[in-house]
Amino acid sequence: METDATYRGTVYPWQCDHVGHMNIMWYVGKFDEANWNLFARLGLTPSYLRTSGRGMAAVQQTIAYKRELLAGDILEVKSRLLEIRDKSIRFVHEMRNAETGEIAATCEIVGVHMDRQARKSTAFAPAIRDVARRHLEPAMA
User: Fold this and answer.
1) What is the full per-residue pLDDT of the chain (141 aa) written as tens digits?
2) How many degrees, rounded to 5, is the angle at CA 66 between CA 18 and CA 74?
3) What is the pTM of this model?
4) Measured between alpha carbons, how far is residue 62 from residues 2, 13, 108, 110, 118 in Å?
5) Which domains does the chain have, with CATH numbers?
6) Are strands 54-65 and 120-121 parallel, antiparallel or unpaired?
7) Which residues of 49-84 are buried (b: 16+ CB within 10 A; e: fewer)?
């Protein structure tokens, strides 16, 4: 997959909890923003989702917290596609402290491609599956 970050940002003081580190709700929010950048690389752009009546829904999410992030820290998320199936994808985000390079958290997600009107899963278009296959981790291709 591309090595460009899917998210870059800063930890603001108001994102920290009473213990002084970034609260877990902000980890989830920053991973969510990375989702949409990853999806756009696969062709699941906002315009595609709007015009096709499709959407994406997370059905499983596993987060591992490794190092705390503090107010003022710069962070970066890089994402890797692990698996593409007919109606679902599995991918992982790695959040790092951009200054130290230390991994702060990882998040593995299974997402399902949805028909928004029918409110049920639907197959990815062949063009999207083809792009996704080109982005799979080499060991998974």
Assistant:
1) 446 899 999 999 999 999 999 999 999 999 999 999 999 999 999 999 999 999 999 999 999 999 999 999 999 999 999 999 999 999 999 999 999 999 999 999 999 999 999 999 999 999 999 999 998 866 444
2) 70
3) 0.91
4) 22, 26, 5, 9, 27
5) 7-134 (3.10.129.10)
6) unpaired
7) beeeebbbeeeeeeeebeeebeeebebbbbbbbbeb
